[in-house]
Design a protein that fits this description.
Helix content: 25-40%
Structural class: alpha/beta
Radius of gyration: 23 Å
Number of helices: 17
Strand order of the largest sheet: 2-1-3-4-5-6
Strand content: 15-25%
Shape: globular
Largest sheet: 6 strands, parallel
Number of strands: 21
């Protein structure tokens, strides 16, 4: 059997998975494979999976069911499962999906070309995942040299389909040491390890040379980034300062932060470094101290609120985002009402809210009862999201009349949908000056406005004229100067 040469990457889950898929894509392309946008024309389909919630795994199994149907018609199709789900339960995947040829954990992504050669030679299934001992008990043995060499392929990596060249991810840290009782990440991605800042800066330079205007630094607990460099400890604030000096990079973000490790020097970095955006994603998970203790979150509600107050004192323009889990083990109605109260107190720009689902192998699954009924979880989830929607609508209304800077990303979903509808009717259409564009503010607000395609990729000023809970509507503001002028620096 000849080695297949076309591949399709199906990515599920977080930004880490998006970056992993991009690295795998770059690696395969450098080995002579060709990425395709149509699953039907691929010799190989790799599903990059997430295990953080049961729903994420159900979605992956649904996709594998579809691939089984395709493979029944095309027996030579290679189906691979990579990422966290492959690491967590490789035997379970093979038991439910016997058509899978390849299973690869997130710490073995550099093995994929060799694994594909084995599958093509008739040896299937091929599995490469971390052992329990190497993943948790002896981090020193888990050298990242292979994965770091994979990241050197950034020189040839290209964005995945649908991913903007303007906004790119750079990983600064792998793994997590928190072991929150609900979370599977330490088991699937291993212990926390920070990358060499010199390599991170070099990667940012490469991406900037290829057109990136905005760099987002990724880590499971990104604010705990720490690297010993020539006897000196480099933290996240130091790293932000070095990337701030990279020519071509206009904006810098970092996600996701952990409240228990956060220090004020990151707030001061937002003030002092003009490219660092005033946006902070910092999960609270619950507004109840009792629930936080059962989650093994190393902070209290009071300390979290104090941190949010300091954020707004030091960085008045800061926009906050949070994560919440409803229906965690033992959560009573009073616990949930405390979570609602926290959301109302902090006034987030947006939140991500999830119904608790036990993850096999975690402490909560082993030692705590999943005792909140599904209907109650669903009701609490909907209620919390409705509260947040009302908050966001009020906060966004206050933006009306303000002039803000946006990075213009491209055409809005509405504009793309309208053109596709015209094309489906057989009409020859092109983009017009009046077509709707979309961009984001430094605080991560989505802004739509009408304008010419020449604005795409630029930082421009717009004036907000109306707002919903999710979107700001604006008109271009010719009075605002951009680029390196003082007018582009946000008010502190």
């Amino acid at each position: 059997m000849l080695t297949p040469k076309t591949f399709y990457l199906d990515t599920m889950g977080c930004q880490m998975n998006v970056l992993d898929s991009e690295l795998v894509s770059g690696m395969l392309c450098s080995c002579g494979y060709e990425a395709v946008r149509d699953i039907q024309s691929a010799d190989i389909v790799l599903v990059n999976t997430c295990s953080v919630r049961d729903h994420a795994e159900e979605k992956a199994y649904s996709r594998l069911g579809q691939l089984k149907s395709i493979k029944s018609r095309r027996p030579r199709l290679i189906v691979g499962v990579i990422g966290c789900m492959a690491q967590r339960d490789p035997k379970g995947i093979l038991a439910k999906a016997d058509h899978v040829d390849l299973l690869c954990g997130p710490s073995q992504l550099d093995h994929i070309p060799a694994m594909l050669d084995e599958v093509a030679a008739g040896r299937s299934p091929v599995i490469s995942v971390s052992s329990e001992q190497s993943r948790l008990l002896d981090p020193a043995r888990r050298s990242l040299e292979a994965l770091d060499s994979l990241e050197e392929l950034d020189r040839s990596r290209i964005p995945l389909p649908g991913q903007s060249v303007l906004q790119r991810y750079v990983r600064v840290q792998r793994g997590c040491d928190q072991f929150c009782t609900f979370c599977v990440v330490p088991f699937t991605r291993g212990p926390e390890r920070s990358r060499d800042p010199r390599r991170i800066v070099e990667e940012a330079k490469i991406l900037a040379d290829r057109g990136a205007k905005e760099i987002t630094l990724l880590g499971q607990t990104v604010n705990s980034y720490s690297y010993l460099e020539m006897g000196r400890r480099t933290g996240l604030a130091d790293l932000l300062a070095r990337i701030n000096d990279v020519s071509g990079v206009e904006r810098i973000r970092f996600v996701t932060s952990y409240p228990g490790d956060f220090s004020d020097n990151l707030f001061y970095a937002m003030c002092d470094l003009p490219k660092v955006c005033e946006y902070l994603h910092i999960p609270a998970q619950s507004g109840s101290n009792e629930v936080l203790k059962r989650m093994r979150r190393d902070y209290s509600v009071e300390s979290y609120i104090d941190l949010m107050h300091r954020a707004r004192e030091i960085v008045p323009e800061i926009q906050l985002a949070g994560d919440f889990i409803v229906g965690f083990c033992g959560e009573i109605e009073d616990d949930f009402e405390r979570t609602v109260a926290l959301v109302e107190t902090v006034r987030y720009k947006n939140i991500f809210c999830f119904k608790y689902s036990p993850r096999p192998g975690t402490a909560a699954d082993r030692h705590q009862a999943d005792d909140v009924p599904t209907a109650v979880k669903r009701r609490r989830n909907s209620q919390l999201l409705k509260v947040q929607e009302q908050i966001a609508a009020r906060e966004n209304q206050r933006m009306i009349g303000r002039s803000v800077e946006v990075l213009v990303e491209g055409y809005s979903k509405a504009a793309v949908k309208a053109q596709q509808a015209e094309q489906s009717r057989g009409h020859e259409v092109g983009w017009r000056r009046s077509d709707q564009l979309v961009g984001r503010t430094r605080g991560d607000h989505i802004v739509v406005f009408n304008g010419d395609r020449s604005l795409i990729g630029r930082l421009i000023g717009v004036r907000v004229v109306s707002a919903t809970a999710l979107t700001l509507h604006a008109v271009p503001d010719a009075a605002i100067e951009h680029g390196t002028t003082a007018a582009s620096t946000p008010q502190r």
